Each structure stands twice: as structure tokens, then as C-alpha cells.
Amino acid sequence: MKREMTVYRLRTPVSEETARKLEVNDTIYLSGTIVTLRDAAHRRALELHKKGKQLPVNLEGLAVFHCGPLVKKVDDGWRVVAAGPTTSSRMELFEADFIKNFRVRVVVGKGGMGAKTVDAMKQYGSVYGAFTGGAAVLAAKAIKQVKGVEWSDLGMPEAMWILEVEDFGPLTVAIDAHGNNLFETIQTKAENEKPQIYKKLSLK
Amino acid sequence: MVTGKAVENVAVKLLQLAVTELPQDVKKALRRAYREETNEVGKAQLKAILDNVELAEKTCAPMCQDTGVVIFYVKAGSQVAGLDKVEDALRKATVKATEIIPLRPNAVDPFTQKNTGDNTGKHIPYIHWKIVPGDTLEITALPKGGGSENVSALGMLSPSQGVNGLKKFVVDVVINAGAKPCPPTVLGVAVGGGADIAMKLAKEALLEPLNQPNPNPELAKLEQELREAVNSTGIGPMGLGGKTTVLDVKVDYAHRHPASYPVAVLAQCWAARRASARIRSDGTVEYLTHKVA
Asked: Model confidence over A112-159: pLDDT tens digits?
């Protein structure tokens, strides 16, 4: 990778220009509004868009968080108890269209995404931020307020939770708007390392 | 004599300890990985893991939203009376723990896809029994996450491939798994016995304390060799790069059929959760993996 990791503290909405400045290995801490969306909510958002309907929230410049939070009802609203990232590859089916139609600038999840998403991020100027898998309490701590919930008919984990966050992170930029995919780079390196590893183990 | 109520109370406590607080040896291994990691991104991931672990412990919240499928290992002293009540007590404990901790409901009917909502179902929680001499009852709770379970693998190798085949199999499984099992993981590896026996031993190996060499020097050497091999893949914490892909590798074996060479690999995510306690005949309880005030 070309340079040292840089730490960015960003506030949503994030501009396309800012998103394009980020490079793989950078770290982001997000503040502002982020929205949780899993498979079902991605599908619904794209269906609404196809019918020419508005989404409950304008997603331009916002961050989409692949997460099914554990949320508790409290007196005057909701409190997020645990909110770790879910496996992003399930959303690969939708994310490219999602970025194209709604211009989200940061996609947050775990495990990385595929070639279609990488292409869309390059074309429209978005990044993928990897949040530490399982770090559910750390995520919940950064969520300061539940601003709203839409599509609750999908069930708690699948609904669209609109969250106000402060210094949400660390998010490692694992796909940038220049076509780099850190997960893929690491995976290819590991594959290439195989002969060396076998040799060290005295295998053929 | 153990009462159902005593077993239930201890098992609820074990589940709570397991999901909110990592055993000392796992925390130590994670801290050591953090100190020794030279990859900046990998180090940042380990820092986030350690911060999360600390926060979970302080707030008594589950450290990961996936609180796993509940598995118990029971070592029952042959002189313990009341063993017939243990299974029912462990099921009750699971229901109660799900409600009060809370645990995420993770027991789904594989045909109807219906979630039972309380972490119990057919064969779940699963209980592994071992009868041992004595008058104490030892219970271990192993809440097992799905992400790491999904990369488990069984290889029915040819006996002519032998130990070299085993080594290659383990390396390949780890590389194929990549970021998926939430590394740094703990690997349980077992060879021999048969397909089911190897898998069972591999999972049970996950209960062994980390960074303590295997009492069998040959296996200790193999564990070290495998640990070094998979840590040179560069996959690193959360698959984002670094030298800590596994915290430890634990190997066990059984004698094999002349025609078979089964090799099982079980991964446990960084949240290597487990908790054990011993109930003595006088009813007192000793927690073995956690400090309990």
C-alpha cells in the first residue's frame, strides 16, 4: 500500500470529494446520521426507487451500516444495546444499485464485498468501512440516539434504524473509490504465500 | 446430591460469565497479540476488540451480538446423586439466561425456519456427558458463534497422506476461511477416530486453556508448527492483515481405522467464550475459568 494509514473524523453527509480522498488502510470515525440496513431493507429501498417513490430518509452522503441491532424500548424511545456488523457479502446483490441510486458515501459492515460493489464505489465515489466483527458493545457506545425506525414490519433486526452517532469506529477503509479492495489484496497475498508455508512445513 | 435448582443457577451464571467476560487466558492472548502485532490495521482491530471486551465486562453486556448456540460439557462424578435432573436444569437455565442476560435467540428449526425464541429446541442446548470418578459435577458452557462454526471442515484424508496431509489441510482451511470466522481465532484440530469423533474432539479442544503447551510433546510441537504456519498467511485480525490469524492451535487425536485418516478443524472466533464451574457434594460452587465475587 502506498502510504501510511491516515485517521479521518468525518461528519455525515459526507461529500463525494471527501469520499474520494480516502484510501484503503485509512481509519474513519463517523459522526452524524447513519442508517442500518440488511437484506430485506435493501430490497425494499430499491423497489420503492423503481416505483419512483421517496425513501423515508434521503440517504445521499450518509453511511449505511450492515447491522441488525439489539434494541430495547425505553420510556421515550429506543436504546441500542448491541450493534455489531453483520456479514456484508449478503448485500452484494443490492449494494451497487444502492450506491448508484442513493449516493451513500460509506458502507459499513464486516468481511468486505465483491467486484460489483468495488466498481460502483469507484464510479460514484463511496468507500467500504470495515467495523471489527463482534464488537457490538463498542458500536452501541458510539450510538448516541435512535432518531427513528422505519419499516418495523420487517422485524427488529431487519428494520431501518436511523441513528445519531458520535465517533463511530474505528472503521478501516477496506474498499476505496480507486478500485482497491483490502480484503482481496490480503486474500491473494495469503494464497501466494501458500508455497512458502508448505515448504516450511516440509510439504511438497 | 445435586438439586435441579442448584444446577440451573450455576448454569445461568456460567452463560452470563461466558458471554460478558472472556476467560483470563483468552484476554491474555489477545493482549499479547496486540502488543506483538506490527501491522497497523491489524493492531487497530485488536485494539477495538480489547476495548470492546473491556466495555462488555464493565457494563455486563454480551461482548458480541451473536451469543451463539448453547453447548454444555458435563463431567459427572459417578457418586453424584440427582444426575437425572441435570438435563432439564440446563434447558431451564438456557431459557432463563436468554431472557435475563439477554442472549440472542439462536435456535431455528431447519425445516420451518422458525426461531424458538428461547435458545432451546431439538438437541439444543446440546449436552456432552462424561462419567468420571468422584462426587462433584463439573459444568462447562460453550456458547458457539455461527460465523466461526461456518468455516469448520472435515477432511477424510488418505492414510498415506498422514501428518503432512493434516498440516496442508489445516493451512488450506485457514486460508479459505479468510476474514469469515472473525480472526484471530482459536483452532481445534483433531485426527482419527472417525468423522464424528474427530469433529467432537476438535470442538472439545477449544476448551483447553490458551498458550499452554500440550502435555504430549509431539502434539505440542505440531501445535506450534501449525500456529506459526497459519500466522504466516498474513490474514491477520478480522482478515484485514497482520501476523495474528490464530491465537492458538489445539490438537487432539484418537486411534484411527487402518483405512481412514479423518482430520477435523473447528474454529472459534476471537470471542472465545467459555465458562466452567464445579459443584461439590456439599453444594458449594467453585468457578474455574472466572473470578466470581
From this structure: 999 999 999 999 999 999 999 999 999 999 999 999 999 989 888 889
How big is chain A, counted in residues? Answer: 204
Predicted pLDDT of residue A3:
56
One domain, residues B15 and B131:
yes
Is there a single domain that holds both residue B223 and residue B109? no
Same domain assignment for residues B180 and B209: yes
Rounded-to-integer distance, Cα A129 and Cα A175, Å: 7
Return the closest-CA partner of residue B4 out of B279, B287, B290.
B279
All residues of chain B having their beta carbon less than 8 Å from the beta carbon of residue A133 are 147, 179, 182, 238, 269
Which has the closest alpha carbon to B142: B280, B26, B45, B28? Answer: B26
Check whether residue B140 and residue B263 sit in a common domain: no
- Domain extent at residue B69: 4-21+63-145+273-287
Consecutive H or E run containing B262: strand B261-268
In B, which residues are within 8 Å of A81 by CB distance?
61
| pLDDT (mean) for B120-140 | 98
What is the share, in percent, of chain A residues with pLDDT greater than 90?
84
In a mutational test of the B interface, the residue from A27, A88, A138 whose CB has the highest number of chain B CBs within 10 Å is A138
* Domain-embedded: residue B46: no
Q: Are residues B254 and B240 in the same domain?
A: yes
CA distance B8 to B172: 41
Residue B47 in any domain: the answer is: no
Distance CA A84, CA A1 (A): 28
The minimal CB distance from B64 to the residues A25, A84, A197 is found for A84
Of the partner residues B52, B232, B235, the one whose CB lies closest to the CB of residue A135: B52
Does residue A49 carry a catalytic annotation? no
Confidence check: pLDDT of A1 > 50: no
Q: Which residues of B touch A8 (CB under 8 A)?
A: none
Q: Does A1 touch chain B (CB under 8 A)?
A: no
Determine the residue type at B116.
Answer: T
* B53 located within any domain: no
Compute the Cα dihedral for A175, A176, A181, A182 and give only its sign: negative
CA B121 to chain A, closest CA, distance in angstroms equals: 22
Each residue of A150-204: pLDDT tens digit? 998 988 888 999 999 999 999 999 999 999 999 999 999 999 999 999 999 998 7
Q: How many CB pairs under 8 A join A and B?
A: 139
- Using a CB-CB cut-off of 8 Å, the residues of chain B touching A140 are 61
Task: Read off the pLDDT of residues B233-285 as tens digits, 9 standing for 90 and up.
Answer: 999 999 999 999 999 999 999 999 999 999 999 999 999 999 999 999 899 99
> pTM, whole model, 2 decimals?
0.93
Q: What is the predicted pLDDT for the residue at B142? A: 98
Do residue B52 and residue A111 have CB atoms under 8 angstroms apart?
A: no
CB of A140 within 8 Å of a chain B CB? The answer is yes
User: Which residue of chain B is at minimal alpha-carbon distance from A175?
Assistant: B240
* H helix and E strand count, chain B: 8, 9
Q: Is residue B44 part of a domain?
A: no
Question: Same domain, yes or no, for B173 and B251?
Answer: yes
Task: Specify whether B187 is located in the same domain as B243.
Answer: yes
**How many folded domains does chain B comprise?**
2
- Architecture of domain A7-200 in this structure: Alpha-Beta Barrel (3.20)
B105/B85 same-domain check = yes
